[in-house]
Each structure stands twice: as C-alpha cells, then as structure tokens.
C-alpha cells in the first residue's frame, strides 16, 4: 500500500470521526476538517508531481544509457570534444535514413567496423521511428543493451497503461469539500 493511500485513509478516518462527533456544530466540524483536507490535498498534488518527475527521470536515464554518448572518465577535453562531434555526425547521418532496411544495413556496417557511435545513432533514429526490427538487431549484440531496451519498453508500457493512469488518478485525487464545509460556504 502506498504512502499516499495510507495518508488518504488516515485523513478520511479523521474526517469521519469529526463528522460523527455529535458535540460539534457543523461550523466547528468544518473548521477542523478544512485544514486536514487542505494539508492532504497539498501533499497529494506534490506526490503526483514527484511520481511523474521520477518516471520522466528514469525514462531519460534509460534513453541516455541506450542511445547517449559515453566518454571515458580519463579522456582529455580534446578527446571528449572529438567524441561529441563524432556523435553529432553519427546522429546526423542516421537521421537521414528513411527506410528500416537501410538503417539495418548501415547498423550492420557500423558494427562490422566497430563504430559504436554510429550504431547508437541508428538505434536512436530507429527508436524514434518505431523501427522495431532495427532496434532488435541493435540490442542483440549485447545482453546489457537488450536489458536496457527491455527496461525502456517496460517504462513506456507502464506510463501508457490505462490501469496505471486510473490508479494514479484515484491515488492522487484530492478529497472534495465535505457537507459541513459546503453548508458553511453556502451560508456565507
């Protein structure tokens, strides 16, 4: 059970207890309920934003591991600049591909000559264009790469899942105004 769900349940129980207190007027109930509801709703909004940011961050990290630039820590600044330029050139070249067959052929050539930057560029373009067979060929060369591609797909499936969207909508939805609060507002 998530922390958000636990906090929601605890706050709803507190509100129910206040609502059932026969010694309190509706106004007194509303004054006690309003800050509980406001605090929980603020927390839920913050958690919803944090959950989305965490998903986005994980997605970005996985994309970078799969398709991004990797430079040795010990590389000089000159070497780093040269690698970045080569990576840009590889991305530019890969972006010019228009058919998955051409991408697959160029990927095989890049792998044959050990051009990992070009292979990554082709894989990125294939990912962006949904060329699954080219991505599979890219991933087949390494179990790490296959695992990262699997992780990426899992993240994307989870983020697009209607079930996840429904669960999140319920989990982070704010608690609405109570009858006591509404009665006070209507009198004002």
Can you describe what's shown?
The chain is mainly alpha-helical and 188 residues long. The protein has one domain (3-187). It is 81% helix and 0% strand. The protein has helices spanning 3-20, 26-67, 77-95, 100-113, 116-128, 132-139, 143-160, 162-172, 179-187. Helix 5 (116-128) runs antiparallel to helix 6. The longest helix is centred in the first third of the chain and has 42 residues, at 26-67.
Computed structural class: mainly alpha
SSE pattern: HHHHHHHHH
- Shape verdict: elongated
- Terminus-to-terminus distance: 40 Å
Given as residue ranges, the uncertain stretches (5+ residues, pLDDT < 50) are none
Number of distinct helices: 9
Instruction: State the share of residues found in helices, binned by percent.
Output: over 70%
Total strands: 0
Spatial extent as radius of gyration: 26 Å
Tally of distinct domains:
1
Largest sheet: none
Mean pLDDT over the full residue set: 88
Strand-residue proportion = under 5%
Indicate the topology.
Layout lengths: L2 H18 L5 H42 L9 H19 L4 H14 L2 H13 L3 H8 L3 H18 L1 H11 L6 H9 L1
Outline:
With 188 residues, the protein is an all-alpha fold.
Structure keywords:
188 residues, mainly alpha, 81% helix
């Amino acid at each position: 059970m998530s922390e958000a769900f636990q906090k929601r349940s605890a706050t709803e129980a507190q509100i129910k207890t206040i609502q059932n207190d026969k010694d309190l007027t509706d106004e007194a109930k509303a004054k006690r309920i309003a800050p509980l509801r406001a605090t929980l709703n603020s927390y839920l909004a913050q958690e919803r934003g944090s959950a989305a940011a965490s998903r986005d961050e994980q997605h970005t990290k996985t994309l970078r591991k799969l398709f991004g630039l990797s430079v040795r820590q010990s590389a000089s600044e000159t070497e780093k600049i040269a690698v970045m330029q080569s990576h840009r050139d590889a991305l530019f070249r890969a972006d010019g591909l228009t058919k998955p067959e051409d991408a697959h052929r160029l990927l095989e050539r890049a792998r044959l000559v050990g051009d990992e930057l070009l292979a990554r560029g082709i894989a990125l373009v294939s990912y962006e264009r949904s060329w699954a067979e080219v991505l599979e060929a890219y991933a087949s060369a390494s179990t790490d790469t296959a695992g990262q591609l699997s992780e990426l797909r899992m993240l994307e499936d989870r983020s697009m899942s209607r079930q996840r969207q429904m669960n999140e909508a319920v989990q982070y939805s704010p608690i609405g105004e109570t009858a006591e609060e509404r009665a006070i507002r209507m009198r004002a």
